[in-house]
Amino acid sequence: MESREAIQQFASTLQGELMSAMETGGPTEAIQVCNEVAPEIAADISADTGWDVGRTSLKLRNPDNAPDEWERAVLESFDAEVAAGTPADEVAPSHEVIQTEDGARFRFMAAIPTGGQCLACHGEDIDSDIKHALERLYPEDEATGYQAGQVRGAFTITQEM
Ligand code: HEC
């Protein structure tokens, strides 16, 4: 429940920042939001809650967001659900208690659907200015070629228990 609220807060804060940057400066300015503000929002929520909060994906833009083994399996299950016909925005979050060397952890992930507004920076046909800006910041970018309705990635939370 609280995990859902934290993710809701992450998603809506980021969405708000992204949309206002798109309006004032266009996608090249909005790239700054994703580049700087997204990790800041995650860090703020992590500091508030004491949990580890972030975003991840099977096709990464920022290698810092790489999934661990549990996250990778959940991302694959989200993709499988969508391939089987579940709309990406209706895929249910996944949670599990995992035993680690440092004790039990509550893990929670919620799928992030690709919407039309994401395609400017994650789609198949990216404007050359944006492409160049992305190449500068993310030389190993894999997070393009998406279509609306696919799972772009997930919000992920780890809580110590
Ligand atoms: C203005 C360009 C832009 C738009 C529009 C955009 N993104 Fe991104 N996205 C980025 C950048 C830049 C990063 C890398 C952020 C970082 O360094 O952590 C990113 C990273 C991500 C990540 C983290 C995983 C990874 O690949 O590193 C997810 C998930 C994501 N975006 C989803 C979305 C979704 C969903 C939308 C639409 C609601 C969206 N993005 C719209 C530029 C954009």
Task: Report on this structure.
With 161 residues, this protein is an alpha+beta fold. The protein has a single domain (2-160), classed as 2-Layer Sandwich (Beta-Lactamase), CATH 3.30.450. It is built from four helices and four strands, in the order H-E-H-E-E-H-H-E. The protein has helices spanning 2-49, 69-83, 119-122, 128-137; strands spanning 52-56, 94-100, 103-113, 151-160. It has a four-stranded antiparallel β-sheet. A hairpin with a 2-residue loop joins strand 2 (94-100) and strand 3 (103-113). Helix 1 (2-49) crosses helix 4. The longest helix is centred in the first third of the chain and has 48 residues, at 2-49. It binds heme C (HEC). Heme C (HEC) binds at residues 27, 30-31, 34-35, 38-39, 55, 57, 60-62, 65, 112, 114-115, 117-118, 120-122, 143, 152-153.
